[in-house]
Design a protein that fits this description.
This protein is mainly alpha-helical. It has a domain of 161 residues. The chain contains 11 helices and 2 strands; from the N terminus they run αααααββαααααα. A two-stranded antiparallel ribbon has the order 1-2. β1 and β2 form a beta hairpin. α2 crosses α7, α2 packs parallel to α11 and α4 runs antiparallel to α6.
Length: 277
């Protein structure tokens, strides 16, 4: 039985998959930096549109992305609630005004400024996650390692990252095999069980999964050591891709967009777009 995984490379016949790993890595890093620096809602809105378009063109399975979206939504809500509990007027401090909507309890009052600040945080997540998902599912681990080494990173580190990405589907498959074995023994681990019971039973899978992973790491480490890996300062790459026309176009677009986004963000000396002025 084939066990389906997510956040793993899937070969597809798209122009995004044909791009070099160097190109996709440059795009992802630049996109992450811009997304982290800007709080300009206009820039972030454009980034969401581009991110979703790129994700659609990569032909990624929605069933995979929906899992990421669910986890993202939970994390995002918890983050926004935490910010509000510890700093309910953070938006007011940033935008220099206060427009109350309603009083909640104690010292907590809901304001338009804080809602707008929370909206920007939410948009940031949806601007960066699709590109990260696209990068993970459209870049082969071995080709990614070659790309990292090509831009100057030590091949030892590049290969370690490549191995980590390559073992993600193996770990997911092993987790599901253990879970299926537990269910075959009559231990309910589906949505039918209570939430706390599911959490406890899922936690019990971690121990055998860790032992299995450690065993694999030991086997791979010994095999690489026996073959003299790391003995020389440089190595060649079978999976390396040369930069083609589309690669240079994407890199040029990335540089131009990043520069334009940062100029728009900082043109008035403040990276927060303020509609309350």
């Amino acid at each position: 039985m084939k066990i389906r995984t997510f956040l793993t490379y899937e070969p597809q016949d798209t122009w995004i998959h044909d791009l070099s790993g160097v190109t996709k890595f440059i795009f992802f890093i630049a996109w992450s930096v811009v997304c982290g620096l800007t709080y300009d809602t206009r820039v972030l809105a454009v980034m969401i549109l581009i991110s979703m378009s790129v994700l659609y063109m990569s032909k990624a399975r929605w069933s995979q992305f929906s899992i990421v979206v669910k986890v993202l939504a939970i994390f995002m809500v918890l983050n926004i609630i935490t910010i509000f509990l510890f700093s309910p007027y953070q938006g007011c401090l940033i935008y220099g005004s206060r427009t109350d909507i309603c009083h909640l309890f104690g010292k907590y009052t809901l304001t338009k400024e804080h809602l707008f600040y929370s909206l920007n945080i939410m948009i940031k997540y949806f601007a960066i996650v699709p590109t990260a998902f696209m990068f993970m599912t459209s870049t082969a681990p071995n080709e990614f390692a070659a790309s990292l080494n090509k831009i100057g990173l030590s091949y030892n580190i590049a290969y370690s990252i490549s191995l980590a990405l390559r073992y993600i589907p193996d770990l997911q498959g092993e987790f599901r095999r253990i879970r299926n074995a537990q269910e075959a023994r009559g231990i309910e681990m589906s949505a039918k069980a209570k939430l706390m019971d599911r959490i406890k039973r899922m936690a019990s899978i971690i121990s055998p999964l860790l032992f299995t992973s450690m065993e694999r790491i030991d086997v791979v480490s010994n095999a690489m050591e026996l073959r003299g890996f790391g003995k020389k300062k440089k190595r060649t790459w079978y999976a390396a891709k040369p930069l083609k026309r589309n690669d240079w176009l994407v890199i040029a677009f990335t540089v131009v967009f990043a520069a334009a986004a940062l100029i728009i963000t900082y043109h008035d000396g403040n990276r927060f777009y303020n509609p309350f002025v």
